[in-house]
Design a protein that fits this description.
This protein is an alpha/beta fold. The protein is 37% helix and 17% strand. The strands form four sheets. A seven-stranded parallel β-sheet has the order 3-2-1-4-5-7-11, with helices on both faces. Strand 4, helix 3 and strand 5 form a beta-alpha-beta unit. Helix 1 crosses helix 6, helix 3 runs parallel beside helix 4 and helix 8 runs antiparallel to helix 9.
């Protein structure tokens, strides 16, 4: 890939939580000459050096070869989280749509593919210590999200063998949050009628402490900088991305000034399953099962080979996100539109 200024980068899923941050970071990079953002619905948002094209990866249509022609890199972020009650629909977008993207990268002779994998691709792992990128990526079979992320890891294994000329980078970030993603993520995981103002310390005298509920978080803008570094460098392979410290009931209790109260896994899962079955909660009990089993990730490789460090701690990330939740924050794209409920 040329080191001259003026790279052309194509971003799929460019109007979502990660996409808006990646597009913004790329538009500010002097090494990038232009950004083409692909999305189902074109936004009114116009960052520098960025143009838009309407592409629905779930549709039965030709692969996006035309959009990829002449690109120096494709960053593939497009992903659908819903409907959780119909995994065939998300499979069509997330798996079959991604395969069309990979095929189009090869057909258009794009030299770099940066793919958004996830901590959700990892097999169940430890909560007391971290694992590196060699940890198995078989996901948790009960959760569609993990199943799809893990399946695409195998697809990329084959793609790399068949297309060694393409430099493939797989980003495996922790849970990604920013203030502007609050409304979108409330709708995706909590439901459109969950009141954001309820995320207030004075309304939470105690917090449920569920065995295994210890995860990692990362600011979306920090993840976006890692994507930019992957395009600008010559690295290959997988990179874990997360901020410190790990998030558990004790940390949340300190943030909210609330007392953690132990709640058995079975009781918590039963509550989630009941709400999901009644279609009151979009997040499925299968995803709940997966979260309890996710390993904690070691990010040494990203620090050493990408020169990447998060600018925000996990505590700062959650504080910013909760503020956005209370205010109904969003951005100038259809998936990210702000809406305050309650």
């Amino acid at each position: 890939m040329s080191s001259e200024p003026g790279r052309r980068v194509v971003v799929t899923g460019a109007t979502g939580n990660v996409g808006t941050s990646v597009v913004r970071v790329l538009s500010e990079d002097p090494e990038v000459g232009s950004v083409l953002g692909l999305a189902r619905r074109l936004p009114h948002w116009s960052p520098p050096k960025t143009v838009w094209a309407a592409v629905d990866l779930a549709a039965e249509r030709p692969r996006p070869v035309k959009e990829f022609q002449g690109a120096d890199a494709v960053i593939h972020l497009a992903w659908a989280f819903q409907p959780t009650h119909d995994p065939a629909v998300t499979w069509r977008t997330n798996v079959l749509g991604s395969i069309r993207v990979f095929q189009a990268v090869a057909e258009a002779k794009v030299p770099v593919l940066v793919h958004a994998s996830s901590v959700g691709a990892y097999s169940p792992g430890p909560k007391g210590h971290t694992v590196d990128e060699s940890w198995p990526t078989h996901g948790w079979p009960g959760a569609a999200y993990c199943r799809e992320k893990a399946y695409l890891e195998r697809v990329l294994d084959t793609f790399e063998r068949e297309h060694p000329e393409v430099r493939v980078v797989r980003m495996r970030p922790a849970f990604l949050f920013k203030r502007q993603s609050a409304s979108e993520q409330r709708r995706i995981f909590g439901g459109r009628f969950l009141p954001g103002p309820a995320a207030r310390p004075d309304l939470l005298p105690f917090l449920p402490s569920i065995p295994g509920l210890r995860v990692q978080a990362l600011h979306t803008d920090d993840a976006a900088r890692a994507y930019r570094l992957a395009v600008d460098s010559e690295v290959r392979g997988a990179f874990n991305l997360a901020a410190e410290p790990p998030v558990d009931a004790e940390l949340l209790g300190e943030m909210f000034g609330a007392r953690p109260v132990r709640l058995p896994r079975t009781a918590a899962r039963s509550a989630v399953a009941a709400a999901w079955g009644l279609r009151l909660l979009p997040a499925s009990p299968h995803l709940f099962d997966a979260v309890l089993r996710l390993p904690l990730m070691d990010c040494t490789r990203a620090h050493a080979e990408l020169g990447w460090q998060p600018h925000h701690t996990a505590t700062e990330v959650l504080e910013e996100f909760l503020l956005g939740l209370r205010r109904g924050e969003g951005e100038e794209t259809e998936p990210m539109r702000g809406r305050k409920v309650g």
